[in-house]
Specification:
With 380 residues, the protein is of the alpha/beta class. It has eleven helices and 19 strands. It has helices at 15-25, 51-59, 63-67, 98-112, 153-158, 223-228, 237-242, 283-300, 304-333, 337-358, 360-363; strands at 6-10, 29-34, 46-49, 71-73, 75-80, 85-89, 93-97, 115-118, 122-126, 130-133, 138-140, 143-146, 166-177, 185-190, 195-201, 204-212, 246-255, 264-265, 268-270. A seven-stranded mixed beta sheet has the order 6-5-14-15-16-13-17. Bound molecules: flavin-adenine dinucleotide (FAD).
Length: 380
Amino acid sequence: MEAGMEAMVIGGGVAGPVAAIALRRIGWDVTVHEAYADPAGDVGSFVSLGDNGLRALDAIGCRDAVAARGTRLPLLRLRSGRGKLLGEAARGRVTLMRGHLVETLRALALESGARIVTGRRLTGVGHGRTAVFADGTTATADLIVGADGIHSRLRTVIDPAAPAAHYAGLWTAGGRSPHPVDPDAFTITFGARATMVCAPTPAGTLWAAQVPSPAPPTGPLDHAALAALFDADHGPAATLVRTTDHWHPRTVMQALPAGVPRWHRDGMVVLGDAAHPMGAGQGANLAVEDAVVLARCLRDTPDMDTALTHYETLRRPRTTQMLKFAGANRDAKISGPVTARIRDLTMPFFFRRFAAKSSAWMHDYDVEWNKASTLPPSST
Ligand SMILES: Cc1cc2nc3c(=O)[nH]c(=O)nc-3n(C[C@H](O)[C@H](O)[C@H](O)COP(=O)(O)OP(=O)(O)OC[C@H]3O[C@@H](n4cnc5c(N)ncnc54)[C@H](O)[C@@H]3O)c2cc1C
């Protein structure tokens, strides 16, 4: 499609600013509307970006600025709570605070010429793609991009029957501790009662505990009880919790297991968590990939509907595969003691033989920004 088209991006989290930058790269006029006045800064938890997410950022010239805000660790290491090494892979990733990622992406979006309006929450879309906001203002555009996260409003505008996310049996709490951990690895320890994820950074060790629970937690977080969940485990988990001097907010993991049936309609499209909430792990990476692929399809396809169909055709298989992986990953963290014992016995074998190869689809993915995208005839 030609340059000079107008896009309205709803949501200024991860996917929103990346979509804005990618759309600016193809010459579109872009305004991002973000619900909160200022959700960026040193708030929230941390995320880690793998080679796939970083490669997608590189395609639109953002990789270096993002990587400079984080810590690159060369290894991914998995351990059991009994102290056994379950697996190790040279899968480098950059770990950074989500707030710093958002802050950096927004600055890059502004630099690219996009506008960002904060404190503007989408409530609905009327005739002629007229977006209506909670403050009473309205706006129109050729394309409305829903980068408005797991509880996306645009998802239900596109399809009023779209399913809603619900509690996925796991909550997380985390923080930063001065206690040192393995300096070279992003480490995941499957403990007897909860999973501990940790990453060393110059500011201290960032950690997140993932706690299985049939119902979401209520009341304030009990730090001592959280630490006690790791007392029976080998490794630094319990000490990390007890020595934490900077806490991140508790998060309840949500999922949409059946997926989102409809991603686009009449010049409106969803991406990132709005299209396929993943839970922790790869959600931000996929959000970045989506945004770049969407711009590529709009660049290379003559009309809107075909471009959005093309985007979905390219992204659906990958996000479906990732949703399956994320579901299995979550189940592994909420498994009972017997399943956990089997996992601890079998994982080292499978990890050594198959992990590098079988996870290549996840990390080696390329958005192919420089390649013209053409829709296969069967998809039109
Ligand atoms: C604890 C935790 C750890 C995680 N760790 C990782 C990790 O290590 N690696 C990884 O890849 N992913 C991780 N994720 C997942 C990742 O954070 C998400 O997948 C990613 O942020 C999705 O990006 P998004 O832009 O689609 O949505 P979001 O980042 O949620 O952004 C949505 C934005 O839209 C705004 N918004 C919402 N509704 C409206 C509205 N009506 N109008 C206007 N604006 C609106 C919100 O305020 C927000 O700014 C983690 C998630 C959690 C909870």
